[in-house]
Amino acid sequence: MAAEMLHFHEMGFDDRLLKAVADLGWSQPTLIQEKAIPLAQEGKDLLARARTGSGKTAAYAIPVIQRILASKQSVREQEVRALILVPTKELGQQVQAMMRQLTAYCSRDVRVADITGKADLSAQRPILMEKPDVVVGTPSRVLAHLSAQNLVLHSSLEMLVVDEADLLFSFGFEADLKNLLCHLPKIYQSFLMS
Ligand SMILES: Nc1ncnc2c1ncn2[C@@H]1O[C@H](COP(=O)(O)OP(=O)(O)OP(=O)(O)O)[C@@H](O)[C@H]1O
């Protein structure tokens, strides 16, 4: 007999996250979420591949949000804790929209900034100076902000997501991505999604 699928409320999430998931009308995780989220909750690195529309974004977004919420229970300095790398502005906007929906009840505790847009670096600098908990960006944008010292990740980064990893590790993005990885601390939980 097939094993019963877990429901979101059985996965040990913060009530605010569960409420946002319920508002989205999701009762059960999709297959990739059911496989990926428990591993992510154990702190494991993930390498996940699934077809478009299978719920990959929430498969990493939910554990990223949960980890930030859990750690905010003990007093901590405001720092950038998670970096989500995407290949394009459009995907950045989609990720930001999903993060906003999932943080609808905890937007003060989990602040998300999308820096994929074409605005000047100086226009985005104030957003980064506030040290959002999560930054969504393309590798080139993130590198530019690191070089301009608008963003410091060395001591704070706990989670790195590479969305569309197959694309980001391919021609056109690879050099920036490798360069960026050299600027990051050595220890963080990673989510490679494609
Ligand atoms: N557990 C769930 N139950 C019902 N719908 C869900 C669930 N998780 C995600 N969805 C919905 O499924 C759709 C696809 O999700 P998502 O964009 O995360 O997929 P994806 O695999 O990342 O797709 P893409 O490769 O196009 O980025 C979205 O409309 C999302 O709201």
Broad structural category: alpha/beta
- Range of helix content: 40-55%
Give the strand order, joined by hyphens, for the main sheet: 1-6-5-2-4-3
Number of E strands: 6
- The CATH topology assignment is Rossmann fold
The profile of the biggest β sheet is:
6 strands, parallel
Distance between the termini: 30 Å
CATH architectural group:
3-Layer(aba) Sandwich
Present as ligands are: adenosine-5'-triphosphate
- Can you identify the CATH superfamily? P-loop containing nucleotide triphosphate hydrolases
Protein name: RNA helicase
GO molecular function: ATP binding; hydrolase activity; RNA binding; RNA helicase activity
EC number: 3.6.4.13
Catalytic activity: ATP + H2O = ADP + phosphate + H(+)
Question: What report would you give on this structure?
Answer:
- The chain has helices spanning 15-23, 31-41, 56-71, 89-102, 121-129, 139-147, 165-168, 174-183, and strands at residues 46-48, 82-85, 112-114, 134-137, 159-162, 189-193.
- It is an alpha/beta fold and 194 residues long.
- It has a single domain, classed as Rossmann fold, CATH 3.40.50.
- A six-stranded parallel beta sheet has the order 1-6-5-2-4-3.
- Strand 3 (112-114), helix 5 (121-129) and strand 4 form a beta-alpha-beta unit.
- Helix 2 packs parallel to helix 3 (56-71), helix 3 packs across helix 4 (89-102) and helix 6 packs across helix 8 (174-183).
- Residues 26, 29-30, 33, 50, 52-58 line the site of adenosine-5'-triphosphate.
- Residues 6-34 form the DEAD-box RNA helicase Q domain.
- Its EC number is 3.6.4.13.
- A motif (Q motif) lies at residues 6-34.
- One of its GO terms (molecular function) is RNA helicase activity.
